[in-house]
Amino acid sequence: MLLFGGGTQEGVEQRSEGLQGGFLPGSAGPWKGAGWGGAGHPSPRGRPRPLCLPAAAARLSSFNDDDKIIGGYECQPHSQPWQVFLTYGNGYRWCGGSLINNRWVISAAHCYLSPLWPGKPLHLQVEKVIPHPQYDSGVRFNNDIMLIKLAHPVTFNSYVQPINLSPTCPKAGDSCRVSGWGNLLIYGVKYADTLQCLNLPILSTNVCQKCYPSRISVNMFCAGYLQGGKDSCQGDSGGPLVCNGELAGIVSWGSGCALENKPGVYTTVCNYKEWIEEVLANN
């Protein structure tokens, strides 16, 4: 099943994981090739940051072109029925999202690219887009969360279902799953034709802060493997990180893709429960 977004302002595309479909490469606005971060958006510029593992840490493993989401696997058909991605124009797609009820999608605020949203209507229009009012689009990407209201309710079926928001914040050691149609390669560009999944652990706040000194706010957490080789990447931004069947994180940012000591950084959904409830109630 394909639901395409469009309209005069913006669009959302939702698609069943069992279908084939390309994720178009390219850059837009400030996002340029290698300038994208490991979790799907711009990485910090300048010299590499210090490693957060000791020198004896395991070296980056070698992965070939068949690796998924980077080091993951093809999702079971219809296993992620809340998965959404954003599109504009004639179908250019650049971010993910999650259906949280029949009218609302949650994504990352940095996916709001107002100059790029105009496009020809396809199937499913969007009524409004609401980035967090305190989103920091500068260096830190704090409050990287956005709500999207659909113009018409989605009809639920066995392939299209919402996901519940996690009432608690993820803890270090929790095993979770990230999914998306983003880049599959650590170096180079190869976009997924089918939805990719990756199981990965939540890292402690202490480790996360060592990996990204002075960059991690209380609204962020790290997930992934410090040895590298497995990560979300360009094109996965805004997509879901699911713990115990509930939405716990939103793909936000990182330095490179699947690099040693540079795990993906995610928006902590539990911190925004009141804001989400307020937006849904007032819109």
From TrEMBL:
CDD domains the UniProt entry points to: Tryp_SPc (cd00190)
Record-linked InterPro entries: Peptidase_S1_PA (IPR009003), Peptidase_S1_PA_chymotrypsin (IPR043504), Peptidase_S1A (IPR001314), Serine_Proteases_S1 (IPR050127), Trypsin_dom (IPR001254), TRYPSIN_HIS (IPR018114), TRYPSIN_SER (IPR033116)
Pfam families (UniProt xref): Trypsin
Molecular function terms from GO: serine-type endopeptidase activity; toxin activity
Domain (Peptidase S1): residue spans on this chain: 69-281
Superkingdom classification of source: Eukaryota
UniProt key word Amino-acid biosynthesis: no
Record key words, sorted: Disulfide bond, Hydrolase, Protease, Serine protease, Toxin
Gene Ontology cellular-component annotations: extracellular space
GO biological process: proteolysis
Family under the similarity heading: Belongs to the peptidase S1 family. Snake venom subfamily.
The protein, known as: Peptidase S1 domain-containing protein
Organism: Varanus komodoensis
